[in-house]
Amino acid sequence: MRRRLFVPIVVAGIAGSGCFSYQSVPRELPLPDRGASVRAHLSEPGRFRLFDVTAENVVRVDGEVVGWSTDSLIMSAWWLQSGSGLEHKGVGETVALNRSALTAVERKRFSVARSGALVGVIALLSVLAGATVEAVGAGSSNPPGPVPPSR
Hints:
This protein is of the alpha+beta class. It is 30% helix and 44% strand. It has helices spanning 2-17, 112-141; strands at residues 20-24, 37-50, 53-68, 72-82, 87-98, 102-110.
């Protein structure tokens, strides 16, 4: 009984967390609104001060839009990635990106298709695992019948 309640709760939890993807924001459109989760790609490696560390050779910034001006996109940075692949945790530090240095801006969106596929796979695996447990358990949970008397 517990297992039958556990599986739907796990599947619902994973579905609720969802799968996300980044979708390009066309250049002709305005930048995403304040509070939007975005990933900004830079044409030239940048240098950003994060508390007591300086992130060098940064080519990508993941974070939240704080605001923008005619020449800058201002973000609360979560992650900064260098050209060598090294990632720096931004911990919400505010960074200003020159808009002319942006090669692409992508907005983080919930993906219904990815989430549905993930839930389907998990549900299928749960059913298969449950059937395997029941098949294995059926043979071992039944006590043997009475032994016939010997003659």
